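Name: NAD(P)-dependent dehydrogenase, short-chain alcohol dehydrogenase family
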Amino acid sequence: MSDFVKDKVVVVTGAGAGIGRDFALQFAANGAKVVVNDLGRNAETGEFAAERVVAEIKEAGGQAVASTDSVADWDSAQKIVQAALDTFGRIDCVVNNAGIVRDRMFFNMSLDEWKAVVDVHLNGSFFVARAAAPHFKAQNGGSFVHMTSTSGLIGNIGQANYSAAKMGVVGLSKSIALDMAKFNVRSNCIAPWAWTAMTASIPSETPEQKARVEILKRMESRKIAPLAVYLASDQAAKVSGQIFGVRANEIYFFNQIRMIRSLHRDGGWTPEAIAEQVMPAFESSFFPNVPSMALTPWDPV
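Structure predicted for NAD(P)-dependent dehydrogenase, short-chain alcohol dehydrogenase family:
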């Protein structure tokens, strides 16, 4: 067992399976005390997935406690953080990993499909982070690690709800980093590539979709956890407000939106002048309107 995050208390949401489980196991293996949060349970036995992961951690000599509250409810989110305080007496890091997908083309997407995804990804990230914030502020330190996605950073087909929520998480993380910097609290994002139960629900009807799924199946979720452990550690004291990505053995660093061109005109602009001068000047800098996989090709060797 490593001591990289020794005695830090870490809440990992959506930790019953997939990437979240890998986070919980690796945090524990690196010395952290882990709140394993997941409301899912085995349909046959009724066992909560979180309890199963806690058992794995304890069998390996680590410390963990299960939380089965929902991130998508304000009061339940408070209970998730309280589980850390009640069991371990403090909280040092929140990993906002819980997520669902309800993929549908935008013109067919229902209100329920929109709200369900936004409630878990965006509202859930805010609720749990907000519950931890007063404790981080009081102890003058803490770290947030949020899961975003290239579906939000770049865009994707059939994922308007997921893309909007994941881009919203980036804005949330940046604002947390700015608002809480004076309290030595950090906030960063990870965009993971991995095959999990959530990505397994991605539609695979067209040849392009099937090819995308086959690529995802070759990306191991366990490869993402080391970056999350690092971002929670004291070694990452100078890292905040950033966006990273992990794909198999690669770690990415993403740029952020900044102004890249400007045009000034005395007296202001008319629609005609914009058409004649602004757009022709800007057009060479336009970004392609393509899904994320087109800009993140992967050919593993």
